[in-house]
Amino acid sequence: MTNILISGASIAGTATAYWLRRHGYAVTVVERAPAIRTGGYKVDLRGAALQVIERMGLLDAVRARATDMRVATYYDASGRPLTTVDADLFGGRTGPDAEIMRGDLNELLYDLTRDDVEYIFDDSITGIAEDGTVTFERSRPRAFDLIVGADGAHSNVRRLTFGDESAFTRDLGHYISICTVPNTLGLDREEAVHATAGRTANVYSTRQDTRAKALFMWSSPPLTYDHRDVAAQKNLLAQAMDGVGWQVPALLDAARDADDFYFDSVAQIHLDRWSKGRVVLVGDAGYCASPASGQGTSLAVVGAYVLAGELATGGGTDGYERELRPFVTANQALGPANIKGMVIGSRAALWFQLTMMRLLPHLPGRNRMIERITGPIARAANAITLKTYDH
């Protein structure tokens, strides 16, 4: 039985662990955090990813934990509502698309695997030898037949095997920050948005959540900061959003106290190959599409399914590349296009967007205009025909 190590117990890692174990492999997952990560923001599952979720027997559980968002409302600097749109249209969702909190999905995946997969928490990989010997920060060295890097856009496994991430990163010229804040606006399955030229603030509360999430996005040249220095990142956020009205000052104060603060560039990872020797990458580690794509979670879920299936049926990492590459390319293309609608570059463009949102329900050809918004996402989400992998 082939012995496989996965680095990272986020969605890419837990989903890969499930499919590898289902195909009969012995699987170990090492995770830097002391426990499974249950926080995070809301994520979408569309197209092929929903097919994979259904094949895992999780579709009903995912729908039971759906965010159930209703509307998104834009406000001006003084708090006056400008326009309200349907939450699915705001998120680019159509038909059966599902939205769920990232932590809820990861819990479901972890529960599927915890009894059959070895999880090692509070540890990480320090070295990978050509013969498959892996060294760890805390655990003793062990030998594996394959090492899967499922450890995110700043992948430690990718750095150890492929080199510095700067060689593979495409910066989209924006930054994003997300954290949990008190639901002082009394939001109920709704999003409240305030946008100015180059800066957007969004706060939302989902079903069964008494708190809220604050999300900030802004355009910026590359910033120099330590990915592990959260205090410095909070300062950078405050500087970036300084002078923005509405509820932003209060949200920034709340962000100072948040213990789940997330801050990163909006960027993509592009590699010519996702495997090298005994190492293969899945999810953001190999092909991060950026939060702007709205497809990062779907890429992780589909990538896990295809990787495990190709390994089990003889296609190997070459088959994984061949089957998944067009799907990744289609979904990564969404990022640069979508970011322009998430952070508006000028006051004139912002006025035009808000006016179109306000008029959309009353315009002739409304369905065609909605398809222009949702169509590219739906086509990318379905840009792969999933094999049925027998073993």
UniProtKB/TrEMBL annotation:
FAD-binding domain ranges (all copies): 2-313
UniProt xrefs under InterPro entries: FAD-bd, FAD/NAD-bd_sf, FAD_aromatic-hydroxylase
One function term, GO molecular function aspect: FAD binding
Pfam families: FAD_binding_3
Protein name: FAD-dependent oxidoreductase
Organism: [Actinomadura] parvosata subsp. kistnae
Taxonomic classification: Bacteria, Bacillati, Actinomycetota, Actinomycetes, Streptosporangiales
